[in-house]
Amino acid sequence: MTDATCIHEASHAAVALRLGLTVRRVQVGGWCRVPRYCAQLYPGLVAGVPIRSAITLLEEDCLDHSTVEVLIAMAAPMFVVTDDSKINTYAWLEAKLATRYAKNKTKLRPDLILSRAKSLAAVCEPRIYEIAERLEQERRIDDLQLPCV
Does residue 147 sit within a domain? Predict the structure, then answer.
């Protein structure tokens, strides 16, 4: 069975690709610097600070020009249940942060973000598991292309 963290990150990546976002890297181990958009979305993170974390890296300014798409991709893992309750709880938390950002920082309706995330998670499911299996073996994928169809 594919690792839950790989499935979680693959869910972000596959939905982001489907929405036309650039996925620079997906990783489930190692270090990276906190991108600006993550610092805007996740309380406690500071842009540029190194962290050791699983992450799906998009373009640095993606939240500025693709807010809806970023929030949908952020919420998508909530609709891809894994066998790990901690990962599932974290996915729920990310969806909550995405809807809170939509409500407080934009004029977007949070329910529409969740609805679109749910439908795209279902549409992208084959691609999610394809990316997750590759991620489990390689631990890091740079410049992921090919959106799910």
Answer: no
Counting the structural domains of the chain, the total is 1
Count of CB atoms within 10 A of residue 80's CB? 26
Residue 146 domain-assigned (yes or no): no
Distance from C-alpha of 10 to C-alpha of 135, rounded to nearest angstrom: 8
pLDDT, tens digit, 9 for 90 and up, residues 85-98: 999 999 999 999 99
Is pTM beyond 0.85? Reply is yes
Contacts of 124 (CB under 8 A, 6+ apart): 11, 14, 15, 18, 76, 148
Amino acid at 8: H
Burial environment of residue 108 by CB neighbours within 10 A (0 to 12, 13 to 18, 19 or more): middle
Q: Which residue range(s) make up the domain with 44?
A: 4-140
3 state SS of 148: coil
Task: Write out pLDDT tens, residues 45-70.
Answer: 999 999 999 999 999 999 999 999 99
Helix ranges (DSSP H) in the chain? 4-18, 36-41, 62-65, 67-75, 85-105, 110-123, 125-138
**Residue 82 is assigned to a structural domain of this protein:** yes
